[in-house]
């Protein structure tokens, strides 16, 4: 059960979806979705990009996933739309941009994007993970252009494995460099939902990627057949600006192929989203 909570400064510029964990603490609701990568521009950022990306506000990591027409992925799209309707009811003024999936060939797809920089205080954390900025390219740009590191840059990349332990099999997750992620990989994304007010005074739903886990590196037969039949397909891109907090997302006990990953809400399960009818949560601003 979810609560829609505004983030307040002098005025409301962001809404988030929150829920209580097992300790009854309020935290952002984390969702999962799986799909094949069809397009991507992921770290690491190297020196070659220093000259080609002079406008740092446009520097971002992005990727697109599709379910190749599977029912689960189609349901996920419907759930995202339902969550948009839920959050929209909290926004009383201003224009609202309707979220729509992009497409890859005839299949629905979902785009994720995270800018590397945001405007902010010079006292903010400027350091990027070594796997993201091994040559210090981004750090140098931050100083030169007087911007700061976006706290929502996707830095958690994992690869799922299976380990035999005393007659049983255990799912494990090893941290990997994003340079090992390839198009066609089947991945699991943990993400948050936000509705933010853009500089153009338009409210829009954004999908905030928190972590990525590679589940399968070999192409499924369906994907191979699809690529052989049409090698000219190009993805559409809808870049998005995001804002949220980072948190370690994967643990060894999480079995993303099964039902044991109770820490997350599966976006592809069901088509209904409802608000928490309970009482107000302590320590959280509400209106």
TrEMBL record:
Region (Disordered) location: 254-287
Superkingdom to which the source organism belongs: Eukaryota
The protein's name in its UniProt record: Uncharacterized protein
């Amino acid at each position: 059960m979810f609560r829609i909570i505004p983030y307040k400064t002098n005025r409301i510029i962001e809404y988030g979806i929150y829920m209580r964990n097992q300790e009854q603490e309020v935290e952002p609701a984390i969702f999962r979705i799986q799909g094949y990568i069809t397009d991507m521009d992921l770290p690491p950022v190297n020196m070659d990009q220093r000259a080609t990306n002079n406008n740092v506000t446009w520097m971002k990591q992005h990727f697109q996933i599709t379910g190749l027409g599977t029912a689960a992925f189609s349901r996920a799209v419907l759930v995202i739309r339902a969550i948009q309707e839920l959050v929209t009811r909290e926004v009383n003024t201003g224009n609202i941009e309707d979220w729509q999936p992009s497409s890859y060939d005839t299949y629905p797809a979902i785009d994720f994007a995270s800018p590397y920089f945001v405007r902010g205080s010079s006292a903010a954390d400027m350091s990027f993970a070594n796997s993201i900025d091994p040559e210090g390219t981004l750090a140098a740009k931050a100083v030169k252009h007087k911007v700061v590191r976006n706290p929502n840059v996707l830095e958690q990349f994992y690869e799922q494995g299976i380990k035999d332990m005393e007659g049983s099999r255990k799912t494990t997750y090893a941290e990997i460099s994003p340079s090992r992620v390839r198009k066609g990989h089947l991945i699991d994304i943990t993400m948050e939902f936000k509705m933010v007010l853009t500089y153009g005074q338009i409210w829009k739903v954004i999908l905030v990627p928190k972590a990525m886990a590679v589940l399968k590196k070999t192409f499924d037969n369906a994907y191979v057949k699809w690529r052989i039949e049409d090698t000219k397909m190009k993805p559409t891109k809808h870049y998005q600006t995001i804002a949220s907090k980072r948190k370690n997302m994967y643990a060894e006990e999480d079995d993303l192929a099964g039902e044991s990953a109770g820490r997350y809400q599966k976006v592809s399960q069901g088509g209904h989203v409802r608000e928490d009818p309970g009482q107000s949560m302590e320590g959280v601003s509400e209106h």
